[in-house]
Amino acid sequence: MEESFFSKNGDLLGAIITVAVAFVLAYLVDRIVLARGGRLAGQVTDVGVSRAAATRLRVVRRLVFVLIVLVGIGLALSQFTKLEKLATGLLASSAVLGIVLGLAARQVLANPLAGVLLAITQPIRIGDTITFDDHTGRVDDLTLSYTYIDTGDGRLMVVPNEQVVTTVLFNRSTGDQNAPVAASVWLPPGGDIEKARAALAPLEASDIETAEITPEGVRLVVHGPHGTARTSVSGEEAALRERAHQLLLSAGVLARDGE
Fold first, then answer.
1. Above 50 in pLDDT, residue 176?
2. How many structural domains compose the chain?
3. Which residues of 188-202 are buried (b: 16+ CB within 10 A; e: fewer)?
């Protein structure tokens, strides 16, 4: 009787065990790295770790996990002795297959490579306030493939890492771990800017700048006070905007409905 593809020496069972061990090992290594680096998943400030270290460690954790799993899968496949015949058959067309796979995987491989580049060069870090493609928010997470930006309005912007490294963006944190949040408020056309600044004094804003003056009104950007490092917006901009609006209403800078 011809020997089956999965030989009787337990190739299939050995492969399953190898992959399972790889996943367990990858998980244990990830836990060890996480324990040594601190609880960085969204709580960088709890351990006083800089955003640069948090960003680098988070990407390294994911990279190590993927590498261990890939090595385990490779070892599992190597246990199938009958794969030699299949490999011989594919060898004749390996050049064409390599070109096809290379073109198909370019985008898939570009994002992880860009993620590693971001972790090394760190033009942006977890917790930084950035402006990307006319959207401003805080970097909430940075994975091997994607950068997650919390825009502060209930949306989470997901950007492929390749776009982050090839597109111009503005980092408003400029390395300041305590970079304040910012929110825009509008004054009516011809609004008294100085009176508005005085009304907003209770906010203890680090800066109040006149962003634009248009026929529709005057837009002020209020930068909140410097505080502890944060990894996400978590409604801070919305709260700052609402409080600023209430202060302007109370000071008579803004007209209430019906007045």
1. yes
2. 3
3. eeebeeeebeebbee
